[in-house]
Amino acid sequence: MPMTDFMITPMRHSDLDEVIRADRLVLGHTLGVETLKNELDINPFAHYFVMREASTDKLAGQVSVWIDAGKAQILNLYILPEFQGHKLGDRLLEFCLGYLEANQVEDITLEVRKSNLRAISLYEKYGFRQVATRKNYYDNGEDAFLMYKECEVSET
User: Fold this and answer.
1) 51 in any annotated domain
2) How far apart (Å, rounded) are the C-alpha atoms in residues 123 and 79?
3) What are 46-64's pLDDT values in tens digits?
4) Most exposed of 20, 78, 102, 109 (fewest Cβ within 10 Å)?
5) 116-141 pLDDT, tens per residue?
């Protein structure tokens, strides 16, 4: 699967049904259509993107972040199971980090399931480090690791 066969674009209303299905499949839950519409239309801190296979227009993944006063929180970052194993998570995270850098973000945080070793490894590869554990963070009682990355902001 060549990397050039995928495009990352801002999430649109027309993506919502597909994103909701993907959220349920990958995350086990979704924010729902109304909350996602509010994120896209009203929340000035929200930045949502989808990754699609260029030839089929199939949703391959998504990333969402909140940016506020030089700080960012990655809310979700995932690749759908059928597209995993092709370094698309790297590509989506690299896109996200570049976007955050362009927006002068100084610090990034995210939560990740303690059991999600693949994601933890990906985040560590890009300079995130575990700074805390959030006990019973998820609905099933699983702990989350809070991960943090300090970014270099260029002086303009």
Assistant:
1) yes
2) 14
3) 999 999 999 999 999 999 9
4) 102
5) 999 999 999 999 999 999 999 988 89
Return d(Cα 59, Cα 44) in angstroms, integer: 25
111, 126, 150, 155: which is the annotated catalytic residue? 111
| Residue 25 sits in the same domain as residue 76 | yes
- Annotation says 123 is catalytic: yes
> Is 95 within the bounds of a domain?
yes
**Residue-wise pLDDT tens digits, 12-59:** 999 999 999 999 999 988 999 999 999 999 999 999 999 999 999 999
53 among known catalytic residues: no
Judge whether 2 and 60 are in contact, CB under 8 Å: no
Strands (E) across the chain are located at 6-10, 46-53, 59-68, 71-79, 107-113, 129-134, 144-150
Catalytic residue among 123, 124, 126, 148: 123
Q: Which domain holds residue 126?
A: 111-151
